[in-house]
Amino acid sequence: MRLSVSPAFEAIAWLRLAASGRRHAVHGDPGPAARLALRDRDVALVAQALPTGGNGGYTLDLLTPKPWMGPVESLLDRQLGVMTETPPEAVADQLCAGRFPQGRMPVEVRSAMENGTFARRAANGLLRFWRFVFAESWPGVRSTLETDLAARFTVIGTAGIGRMLGTLHRDVGWTGSSLSIGTSAYQETFDLDGQELVLCPTAVGWPRLAAQCCDPNDAVLVYPANGLVPSRPASDSGLPELVGTSRAAILRDLDVARSTHELSTRWRLAPATVSYHLGVLLRSGLVSRRRDRRVVFYHRTEQGDAVLGLRAGVLQS
């Protein structure tokens, strides 16, 4: 058993939201860039193969291969490589028996399946969506996922793997010899004796619980990351409240107005990561901003003070 982030799953979850025209309870609207990306032929191919409803529906296993061991920076490339190499018969089985069992397959999807180009085009589509849409959000999403993993590792170290498994989700249970994943959709039993099961937190897929166990060599359990809270916005933005340790540190540091560059230097974070966190804080009403010539400064609002427990400039424990 291993824990890891899954870049492919997070990007697919964001693409699925954009394709279905839905908003995320925490992260809000995927945005115009995501919808514009759907005009790309290969991105659209992936979107047509995704479930269009809410949290339910089968997502092709080949689109979310398990993350292999290695640096986080190389995980997406490895996942795209596995996706590209998916055998045509596996592609056909997942599309015909899994995603479109009633035979109502989009013409473009069927054509790519029959000429053997679906896997390659799907990997290309996901890569394009990542580069043009999701790459900017990934640092913030990754921070949330790694915060969750750190907490799980602490539980393992202090109470054991069994206790950690019991904290993943209310529908996940560990008996000491088997892992039960509650679902009303179907019932199946898989023997993973001697096989690796990778546990992956999801921020974009939150609050979804997803099990991928049909192929023992590609067994993944995706569970909702801790620390994500649906906001109750003052406006109709539907955007998130504060999540993640990096974002909390930045918010604490905004008792005086600071620029993105200054925060990046002070906290040794990439400018793109700081911009992502500031965008979330701004849309949540926790910070305000003002422009001074070419520089934009951010400052914590009274709502931000309240979130941190600040009263009259004093942090309450």
TrEMBL record:
Key words of the record: DNA-binding
Gene3D superfamilies hit by this protein: Winged helix-like DNA-binding domain superfamily/Winged helix DNA-binding domain (1.10.10.10)
A GO MF term: DNA binding
Superkingdom, taxonomy of origin: Bacteria
Coiled-coil regions, chain positions: none
Keyword match Transferase: no
SUPFAM superfamilies: Winged helix' DNA-binding domain
Protein name per Swiss-Prot or TrEMBL: DNA-binding transcriptional regulator, ArsR family
Top-level taxonomy: Bacteria, Bacillati, Actinomycetota, Actinomycetes, Micromonosporales
